[in-house]
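To close the chapter, one final illustration. This time we ask the reader to focus less on the individual chains and more on the assembly as a whole: which components sit near each other, and how the overall shape emerges from the parts.
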Amino acid sequence: MTQVGDWFDRRLQLAAPIREAAEHPVPRNTASWFYVFGSAALTVFLLQLVTGILLALIYVPSASEAWSSLQALNHDITLGWFIRALHGWGSNFMVAVVLIHMVQVFLFGAHKFPRELTWIIGVFLLLMTLGMAFSGQVLRFDQDAYWGLGIGASIASRVPIVGPMIVKVMLGGPIIAGATLSRFFALHVFVIPGMLIGFVSLHLLMVLKLGINEWPMPGRIVRRATYLNEYHELTKRTGAPFVPYAIWKDLFFAAFILLAVAACALYFGPFGPTGRPDPTIIQTVPKPDYFFLWLYGLLSYLPPSMETPALLIGPVVAIAFLVLLPFLSGEGEKSWRRRPIAVLTVLLIAIILGTLTHLAGYTPWSPHMNAWSGDPVPDPFLHGTTALERQGALMFQAKQCRNCHSLGEVGGQRGPALDSVAVRLTEDQLIRQVIQGGGNMPAYGKNLSPAETTALVAFLETLHPAGQAPARDAARDMAVRESGTHP
Amino acid sequence: MSNENMLSRRGLLMKLGMLFNGLVATALAFPVVRFLFSSITHGRGNGYLSWVPLGRVSEFPEGETRLATFQNPYVMPTDGKTVDTACWVRRVEGDQFQVFAINCAHLGCPVRWFPQSGLFMCPCHGGAYYRDGSRASGPPERGLFEYPHKIENGLVTIQAGELPTPGPSAALVGKKPPCAG
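The assembled structure is written out below.
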């Protein structure tokens, strides 16, 4: 056995450098559970490579057959569903682990001197991971993928001057079709993974050459002149070999992450595919995958005039900031205990992304397209109403008001809930709002006859809690009293 | 002296070799780049656009808006169902038509027509349009995209072939005139 090993090593001469890399000394307190996310990201990446190749054995990257080949994977091929589920959940875990790794690295000040380039390559790796997540969603060529591409094209088209050309290059033609899927297949399977392998290798090489970031101590300041000597002290004098001193935690966590991916895959199953990618089926509510939900939310809350600049300038500024970060704060304190702005920034971004993701879970900005025909007006709102008011309730349903306004907590949330609208708006204000619209509401003046408007407003006037009077125009009451006539 | 000459001769040959490779690479770059960007150059001018029939005029009742489908004129062998496209046809009266793209002017999701309220609504971010395609509310910056159309031999025909996108002029087109009072 040893002889065979020696035979190979005399030719390969890899044993010595591998042993040197494995046993390189690391600062003792880096053998921590906080330092396992980088290797976990690599583990999930390897899982994605393997499951991706397995899927490619069956998947057909053709617009006319991709969807059917995914159905075959889900239903016909033995355990095809499980491999798809592993790949889909692996994708979610990879984005999550990469983000956690990034936050940990930032909070531990690992982006500072001399590891600036390691950080910058890490930023590129994050972008590539997101690129894999998006292109992977496209390969699941279903309705969500089709309309998701439309959203991508609509965003790309807003680039000044060259926008329409970018759209044609992105789609590979004038519309979303076969060429679009083929080029996203090439990106997802050849281009981005190739770049990922290259950049991950560089990233790892630099971790080996520059050494793992030491555990940050408040008051231990990074200075370009002295840092390398101080780090040398921590590793060569008091450090411990990476293998086996620190690696056992990486190994345990890697196995744990793989187990977690497998458990999710087993329990929740694969993602989609949803309906066939047939553009003539318009009864669809497209939604992006989990890690792009925040963007979906952001796009509905940006005011129209802000949208194009925010979409085009926002990402450039964000990426530039991340790339320049190690140059803006390349020295100084590493410990999160002495970097309150860093901690608050991370928290703020996490809360914003978390809130937008949470909102995109139930999309309060989307009309409920079937609410008008599906959700009846709850009984209590009709109890004791006059014929005119009931006629108004009918209008309320028939004119799709329900798609955007809820009653009894059922219906769209695009506009305000109307359970107690009569307390907020007077009769005149209700009429004006219905006829002229405003805020985020279309004007219904052309689509309601005067009689219909009267009935609808009569119904809306009944929407107030018991014991709370509807809003009234005091000046109008006074005018009526003085003139002694009824309006 | 002779050593230096030897070096510079080898150096010159190496530089010539690099130059030679550079020339070949540049020559090869032309077809590669043209291939990569062929989807732009193919559709230069109105290259992708053609006139496509949607159906007989009589299929579209006056005063109503109906869904119509057509096959995109530019088809590749592996396109499958993706070349089938939907659009909304509004027959105002007589031969007066409006043909709207299915794609919302915000981010391209498919809008749906609600005849009862006379509105197009988008399921994605809640954009809404009036029956004439003008913007009613929500995030879109403009009205629905309209296909150029004509009536030919009793057929409603539209000029189509490209995915309508908001484009760089999204903010400039379809803005309401300032309120006169």
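Chain A has 21 helices and four strands. The first strand of chain A starts at residue 25 and ends at 26. With these observations in hand, you are ready for the problems at the end of the chapter.
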